[in-house]
Write a structure and sequence with these properties.
- The complex is a heterodimer of chains A (295) and B (305).
- Chain A has 14 helices and 2 strands; from the N terminus they run ααααααααααααββαα.
- By secondary structure, chain A is mainly alpha-helical.
- Chain A has one domain: MetI-like fold.
- Chain A has a two-stranded antiparallel ribbon.
- In chain A, α3 packs across α13.
- Chain A is globular, with a radius of gyration of 25 Å.
- Chain B has 305 residues and is mainly alpha-helical.
- Chain B has 2 domains: 52 residues, no CATH class; 237 residues, MetI-like fold (Orthogonal Bundle), CATH 1.10.3720.10.
- Chain B is built from 15 helices and no strands.
- In chain B, α5 packs antiparallel against α11.
- Chain B is globular and about 75 Å long.
- The chains are: A mainly alpha (295), B mainly alpha (305).
- The interface between A and B is large, with 98 and 94 residues.
């Protein structure tokens, strides 16, 4: 194929690159700005004018954050929630999806219907709250794990992946006398890594990012608070008091302004995500496209 | 006899039952049990007496709901913000997908894609923090920029302008989901038969012509289906963003159905009324989802579904 490079084409190309570059910058800038603030001396930050690079380098903001028991505790709880929630969630999703993809399963139809209904029908915020309260799951770590365990959307994505696997695989496993657990763990899961990675990413991001269940069910118990919720409290504090008053942190003699603390917490909350999702990009793109086409 | 066969099958498939039954129980508890709680909306519900101990009052709560001016206000907010986010996100995603598709240098293309996915993966708490820092009246980057170029002489406290809330909320949601929303359109664009473009080359079509007459029309069926389907979910669009970006000053524009239901239940203690709002939302949503799915299927683009 011969491509002619005309003037208008060249002009279009350069404009296109420029627009996309600006878009990339507009997306990155806020994060870069917070990164700079988190490494800048907090009293110096009040003067303003911090853009992409810190002016007075310091690690104090991080030191203050990590020496605060409440913040450190909530960080640990968030990590534990994400790890536990993702492992349990991926197992639950695989179990349910596998059972639904076994043609001979006696409850295949009824369980499938039961699941699809959950996609459309939503009891609503208040009725769900009352169920959880009546089950004594408020002020309870389990409320972070149990309600999110069965997710119809993820189960359906995984099932459609299992359904696409070569039909003979399950049959031959059966002839060889493999049990269902063996078939799932030894045969199906090892060849389903792309979809497992996609769903694991979605579930872990969901757990890492959630704060509303913390706010709604566990806000009374300081020992159950998560990092996102702590960050939310700083946000709400700052919208009631407008300017950057300084305050002495309880556990240290360092002065850290709420604004610097916010920037630092925001960076700590964001970095784990940035470290994970780019590596899974080609998987989740595939997962998203399959999901959308099947819907 | 039938019973014995059934038992034999259950024994044979007991591993599948072990895998699913605990999860089915969880699904019933967290997705179906709340529906039983809908009874509350028809009762003079008191939390101390529970559903079994409360007396029935019929449709009183729903009459109250439809006469409540504040309810129409939050319904308006829910729908307006839902539509604004949907339409802007839609136009943005298609445009960005087309621009990205024109990029020949694949490393550049992938980098921009990766960068624009970031905001989708971070929580609304992080986004709201970023917004409040960028728009802050003391030292926020936007105020500094606007003052430097002379548009304003004094910093503006953006988050305290109630009538600006819809606009700010739409821009922020647009920024958050822009990259993510392009995924499906990019997949469609890569699926276009290259012969179409080659034929256009032979006919002497420029980049613009090819974009306008090949890329854009190829996206339309998918776009139409996705837009129609998302319309059905509009009343279900979240409440986290409004909760975090809004405040007591902007409440007439930022409060949405769920937040109103929450306020009524927890501050006034009227759980029955909160439940009535939840029921309204769920029922309207189901009706809308099924009617738009029906329309989309009838429209002839149904093959994609």
């Amino acid at each position: 194929m011969k491509r002619r490079l005309t003037l208008s084409d060249a002009l279009f190309s350069s404009c296109n690159y420029l627009v996309l570059l600006l878009l990339g910058a507009a997306t990155l800038y806020p994060f870069m700005n917070l990164l700079a603030l988190s490494f800048n001396d907090s009293l110096d930050s009040i003067k303003g004018g911090i853009y992409l690079l810190p002016r007075v380098w310091t690690l104090d903001n991080y030191a203050v954050m990590l020496s605060n028991d409440q913040l450190l505790g909530s960080t640990i709880r968030s990590v534990v929630r994400t790890v536990l929630g993702t492992s349990l969630g991926i197992m639950a999703t695989a179990f349910f999806a596998f059972a639904l993809s076994c043609k001979e399963f006696m409850f295949r139809k009824s369980f499938n219907t039961l699941l699809v209904v959950t996609l459309y029908v939503n009891g609503g915020l208040i009725p769900i709250y009352l169920v959880i309260k009546n089950l004594h799951l408020t002020n309870n770590y389990l409320v972070y794990l149990l309600p999110l365990l069965v997710n119809g959307f993820y189960i359906i994505i995984m099932r459609s992946y299992f359904d696409q696997l070569p039909a003979g695989i399950m049959e031959s496993a059966k002839i060889d006398g493999a049990s269902y657990f063996q078939t799932l763990f030894r045969i199906v899961l090892p060849i389903s890594l792309p979809v497992l990675a996609t769903i694991a990413l979605f579930i872990s991001v969901m757990h890492w990012n959630s704060w509303f269940d913390n706010y709604l069910y566990n806000s009374r118990d300081k020992n159950l608070s998560l990092l996102q919720y702590e960050l939310m409290k700083v946000l709400l504090d700052s919208s009631t008091q407008t300017s950057g008053q300084t305050r002495v942190d309880e556990n240290t003699t360092n002065l850290v302004t709420p604004q610097s603390l916010r920037a630092t917490m925001t960076i700590i909350v964001t970095v784990p995500i940035l470290l994970v999702y780019p590596f899974l990009q080609k998987y989740f793109i595939k997962g998203m496209t399959i999901g959308a086409m099947k819907e | 006899m039938v019973y014995k066969q059934w038992l034999a099958r259950a024994r044979e498939q007991h591993q599948l039952l072990i895998m699913t039954i605990p999860l089915v129980i969880l699904a019933v508890v967290f997705h179906y049990l709340p529906l039983w709680g809908w009874i509350m909306a028809f009762q003079d519900f008191k939390i101390a007496r529970g559903i079994s101990g409360s007396t029935f009052i019929g449709l009183e709560k729903f009459q109250m709901l439809f006469q409540d001016e504040k309810f129409y206000n939050v319904l308006r907010n829910t729908l307006v913000m839902g539509v604004l986010t949907l339409i802007s996100g839609f136009v943005g995603a298609i445009s960005l997908a087309i621009l990205l598709n024109e990029v020949r240098f694949s490393l550049f293309k992938r980098t921009i894609q990766t960068i624009t996915y970031i905001p989708h993966f971070v929580s609304w708490v992080v986004i709201a923090n970023i917004v409040s820092i960028l728009l802050s009246p003391d030292g926020g980057a936007l105020n500094i920029l606007l003052m430097k170029i002379g548009v304003i002489s004094e910093p503006i406290y953006f988050m305290a302008k109630d009538t600006w809330f819809w606009f700010i909320h739409t821009v922020v949601s647009f920024w958050k989901e822009l990259g993510w929303n392009t995924i499906i359109y990019l997949a469609v664009l890569t699926g276009i038969n290259p012969e179409l473009y080659e034929a256009a080359d032979v006919d002497g079509a420029g980049r613009f012509h090819k974009m306008w007459h090949i890329s854009v029309p190829s996206l339309m069926p998918t776009a139409f289906i996705l837009l129609t389907l998302s319309l059905g979910w509009i009343i279900q669009s979240g409440y986290e963003s409004q909760f975090l970006l809004g405040n007591s000053i902007t409440i007439d524009y930022s409060e949405v159905l769920d937040l109103y239901a929450m306020r009524y239940s927890f501050q006034i203690g009227d759980y029955a009324y909160g439940t009535a709002i939840s029921i309204f939302k769920s029922v309207v949503s189901i009706l809308m989802v099924f009617s738009v799915t029906y329309i989309a299927k009838k429209s002839g683009y149904g093959r994609i579904l």
